[in-house]
Amino acid sequence: MKTVAVFFGGRSAEHDVSIVTALATVIKPLELSKKYRVEAVYIAKNGAWFWGDKLKDITLFTSGRIDAYMQRTQPAGIRFDGGMTLTRAAGLGRRTQTCRVDIAFPAMHGTYGEDGALMGLLDMAGVPYAGCDMSASVLAMDKAFAKQAVEAHGILTPAFNVFERRAVENDLAGVVKACKTLSYPLFIKPAHLGSSIGISRAKNDTELRNGLEVAARYDRTIIVEEAVKNLIEVTLPIVGNDELMPAYLEQPMVHADDFFDFDTKYMGQGGKGGKKGGGGKQGAQGYS
Questions:
Q1: 277-281 long-range contacts, Cβ below 8 Å, gap at least 24?
Q2: Residues 187 and 201: beta-carbon distance below 8 Å
Q3: For residue 83, what pLDDT is reported?
Q4: What is the chain's mean pLDDT, rounded?
Q5: 3-state secondary structure string, 145-161?
């Protein structure tokens, strides 16, 4: 039976979202298949790695007991030996426990995970993993880089400007002035984050200034782009390497005056019409 190590948590603003992803949608289905031995590898906010079955229990995190767990538990070790082997202390007088990883399943979000950092580590270790490779992850996670690549290949994309944090901090008025080449409403986004964290919509200069200051707290690079009128946002997962297989096309249900923000995605069941859902015909960045 192959061993699948599911990596989650991490040093990211999306740490908590990653926990939900791993425990609710990755580990449980893998175990129910009864085809794999599933190991939970939790990366704390300070970068320490922990490995163990207790980490599969979401109440450990929702109750706040995770802090006490980490205080009394020795962090896991990683041995690179022509692959990857997890190690952990087993107590006084006992041999160190080990587990050879056959396949890695990154359930990471954001920095040091979804951005290609973990994929690079796994590539160097020679461990196969689910999801995009390092180069694709780097490109997809950098909104500014991705839009520049798309634009260079003649693919239509909303007009945008890119600013560094230091410009926002040192000359906010100048950044707002530079955005005069764009038309409201505008979306302001941290370039390297997901889960809609730090994103805001602006309909005037005051909202733009506020949005820039918020985004600059999360990222060193900020992207400002025009909204797309009557946009329909869709999600289409694709699996495979040489032969690609698309999954079902999903259209998140969002009111026309909303965008697909953090609450809509995670607190309101996103595409299932929860808190903000309800059959709106326009998508995440649509407006009337």
A1: 277/252, 277/253, 278/253, 279/253, 280/253, 280/254, 280/255, 280/256, 281/232, 281/256
A2: yes
A3: 94
A4: 86
A5: HHHHHHHHCCCCCCCEE
Alpha-carbon span 257 to 246, nearest angstrom: 30
pTM of the model: 0.79
Residues with Cβ within 8 Å of residue 169, at least 6 apart in sequence: 216
The tokens for 12 are 């990211």
In sequence order, the β-bridge partners of residue 42 are 8, 50
- Closest by CA to 288, choosing from 256, 266, 243, 253, is 256
Q: State the residue for tokens 């080449």.
A: 181
Using alpha carbons, select from 194, 217, 222, 7 the residue that is nearest to residue 109: 194
152-161 contacts at long range (C-beta below 8 A, 24 or more positions apart): 158/225, 158/226, 158/227, 158/228, 159/183, 159/225, 159/226, 160/223, 160/224, 160/225, 160/226, 161/223, 161/224, 161/225
SS3 at position 106: strand
Helix (H, G, I), strand (E, B), or coil: what is residue 122? helix
Using one digit for the tens of pLDDT, what is the confidence trace for 104-149?
Answer: 999 999 888 889 999 999 999 999 999 999 999 999 899 999 999 9
Q: Do strands 103-106 and 200-202 pair parallel, antiparallel, or not at all (unpaired)?
A: unpaired
Place of tokens 């595409």: 271
Contact 286, 229 (CB under 8 A): yes
Does residue 185 have a cis peptide bond before it, meaning omega lies within 30 degrees of 0? yes
pLDDT in tens, 173-197: 999 999 999 999 999 999 988 767 8
